[in-house]
Write a structure and sequence with these properties.
The chain is α+β, with helices and mostly antiparallel strands. The protein folds into two domains: 30 residues; 132 residues, Jelly Rolls (Sandwich). The chain is globular and about 60 Å long.
């Protein structure tokens, strides 16, 4: 009886070991997102906010793929009585990434384009946008398709938001 128990116990341990090994391999494939990839460009973006006060910053990790990708409707709420500056840092992003800011969600039929990175033809890596009205805005990223040799690479776009209180008098 003890021999049967040992045999099953040994087989169970082998199965669990193989399962854990496969699980570790699968999870490590997702660990390629380097959080330090974005840290430096977030710091640069926050410095570029001056003379505005820091409000928030966000990084978006981009995985290169063989097809064009869209990240749509990243919502940013702006409050009345303040002026804002958007700073986009594309230093670690794929070439040709397009950043657009709209006044409404992508499903709205009559939305207006307020900002586009295509206005900057000289491949600037830090882009500024200062909206004239306070309202909710939506950021869209369009990541171009890449060749298969670049498909394992990742990139990063940093977005920082700054504010300045309007003088009432």
């Amino acid at each position: 009886m003890k021999d049967i128990f040992r045999t099953y116990s040994y087989k169970l341990k082998r199965i669990l070991f193989k399962f854990n090994f496969i699980l570790i391999i699968i999870l490590s494939s997702f660990a390629g997102d380097n959080p330090k990839l974005c840290e430096e460009i977030i710091k640069q973006s926050c410095k570029a906010l001056e003379p505005y006060n820091y409000d928030s910053a966000e990084s978006t990790i981009i995985k290169y793929k063989g097809v064009e990708q869209k990240l749509s409707d990243i919502e940013v709420t702006l409050y009345f009585g303040e002026r804002y500056r958007f700073v986009f840092n594309t230093e670690n992003a794929p070439n040709g990434i397009k950043i657009e800011v709209f006044d409404k969600k992508s499903k709205s039929s009559n939305r207006q384009l307020l900002f586009s990175s295509e206005e900057f033809k000289n491949n600037k890596k830090i882009l500024y946008f200062e909206p004239t009205k306070s309202r909710t805005m939506y950021i869209n990223y369009t990541i171009p398709a890449v060749t298969s040799s670049d498909s394992l690479k990742t990139g990063c776009v940093a977005f920082a938001l700054g504010y300045e209180i309007k003088k009432l008098f």
